[in-house]
Amino acid sequence: MSNPLLSGEFRIPFDQIDASHVEPAIEILLKQAKEKLEEIAAHPGPRTYESTLGQLDSFTEPLEYAMGIVRHLESVATTPALREAHNAVQGPVAEFYSGLSLHDGLWKVIKEYAATDEAKALTGAQARYLKKTVDSFIRNGAELDPAGKQKLQELDVELTRITTKFSEHVLDSTNEFEILVTDEAKLAGLPQSAIEAARESAEAKGKEGWRFTLQAPSYLAVMTYMDDAGIREQMFRAYNKRAAAEPYDNTTLIPEILRLRNEKAKLLGFSDFSDFILADRMAKNGATAQAFLETIRARTESFFAAENKDLSDFAGGRELPPWDVAYYAEKQRIALYDFDEEELRPYFPVEQVMSGMFDIFSRLFRIRVTEEQGVPAWDPEVKYYRVEDMDSGLLLGCFYADWFPRENKRGGAWMDSLIAGNPDAGRPHLGLICGNMTKPLEDKPALLTHNEVETIFHEFGHLLHHTLSRVQVRSLAGTQVAWDFVELPSQMFENWCWERESLDLFARHYQTGEPIPEELFGKMRRARNFRSAAFQMRQLGFGITDLILHRVYKAEIDGPVVEFARKLSQPFSVAELPEDYAMITSFTHLFASPVAYGSGYYSYKWAEVLDADAFTRFQKEGLFSATVGAAFRDCVLAKGDSNDPADLYRQFMGRDPDVTALFERAGLVAAA
């Protein structure tokens, strides 16, 4: 038990975990899980919920605990040794999990239990778990012949290997690039915060000048503000060619991932990977998801065209290259609204944002969030928090927050669960939220952009979906819901970043304590929907490209995937994309794991329809209404996947979702 990955501790001993622990721990836990699997399959009866589904729900928990920690550390604190160990265990673990649905003895036990009177009398979450288990086993090959089962396992193991390699290539190619500026005149246009961050980045590397990288805060500052078009072009081309050439070449991995996914889908009786993946989601199939996106696209295109003409006119009537779009759009926004996003930074120090966010959702959901000191983590900047029910005092869960970029940490922002507990049985949840926000400078706290504030609220929405879960079936708890439903809480939470009443709780100048001046707030609100059609088209482009790649693309017919994806992306782009544009090779949302958001990127827009509509209830009944908050907590956050998501939504809103709120919020409605 000296191996910390075997401890099962709620307070994970991150300070004790080393790469050398990974392979021995996973070997032991895999052996134990396989032995337990055989025990369940060989159970002589009688068939009961506890001896079948109850055991199925819990027997892999120690393995999931350890693998969750390993995967997380590889994302936030990777080393060559940890990466090697992580890669070594990925295959055996993937083979084990893909083999569960293919285990004849286990499938026999589940079918026998499903035929009992007890099973037929199940209600609530247990009845749903039985139905989803039977459906999942069938969908994942339980009734394939032995050769088919063997083939399926081989496909799953290979998908795990190749998607892990994809993710590594993106991280390595991102970290490899830098631009070092030594001529201060070339910094013209950049806000002081970006200049200071670039100076500190250079100093950290022992270099003179100002260092710019492809990490989000650095890249976005250059593309939005830097006057030097040559550097903007360098950055744009580098960012959109990450992992597109040796030694980090994903151009050959993507067609192979697509081929393996579709081969798996066809083996399981589906026409393509999208139909396989979406069978148990709200959309149900790829055609429905694509039709949904095309419907939104049709209502957006005229607004998109008008926005693009306005931007071109503003830039002198010329056709803009893609590295000029964000730069001129920012100039246009300032001209139209006299609003500079950088003016808001002093009002968003990260600790204040977190404190205000806790205050808002404590009022709504009757919870108490407090920081706890001295808890070991993977980096000194990581914070640890407790979440308690305000009325009962019950500890619902704890979570880590890791907000700043590092070279040993992957890009983007995300939430993950480490332990899916059952607070009512004395087992709290454990989760984490991560991002790559603007770092603190030597003499200033971390001052965030408004977009970064929205990201923090977004990830906290996911976190509370996990932490406020009160589902007794572990496999249905928290965020383990249909992926086109999972973004509802996270995207809805972003709305509180736009309301005066809520902003006043946390948006205070870091030096004076003053709230955002009314004039600046008015500018911010007026500018909210600036180029909203362009943003919507960008999201639609990602979703449609994803679905077409998984539903239609065949390398032997459609040619190189980079060129094919670029042509798909072009109608959704403001500018003509260069021939070497290869964003698809770094699209980790789609290709960084065996499933990831493959065939599921539409979920963001699907959930955005839900979130815009659901927020109208808060707008009507009160931003801090404890009544509405309790309803959302009870109907959505607490329920996990214990009921059909469409039913949960109807319980909260009293009706089906209406797409109108999405277009009204974005200002994409024709003038009367």
Helices and strands in order, then pairings?
Blueprint: H1 22-42, H2 50-58, H3 61-76, H4 80-100, H5 104-114, H6 117-120, H7 124-139, H8 146-176, E1 179-181, H9 192-204, E2 210-212, H10 216-225, H11 229-239, E3 244-245, E4 248-249, H12 253-267, H13 273-278, H14 286-314, H15 322-337, H16 350-365, E5 367-371, E6 383-389, E7 395-402, E8 414-419, E9 429-434, H17 450-467, H18 487-493, H19 500-503, H20 518-526, H21 532-551, H22 555-558, H23 561-569, H24 588-591, H25 603-621, H26 626-637, H27 645-653, H28 660-665
Cα-atom Rg, whole angstroms? 25 Å
Helix fraction, binned, reads 40-55%
Low-confidence segments, given as residue ranges, are none
Order of the strands making up the biggest sheet: 5-6-7-9-8
Could you give a short account of the major beta sheet?
A: 5 strands, mixed
What's the number of extended β-strand segments?
Answer: 9
The figure for the number of domains is 4
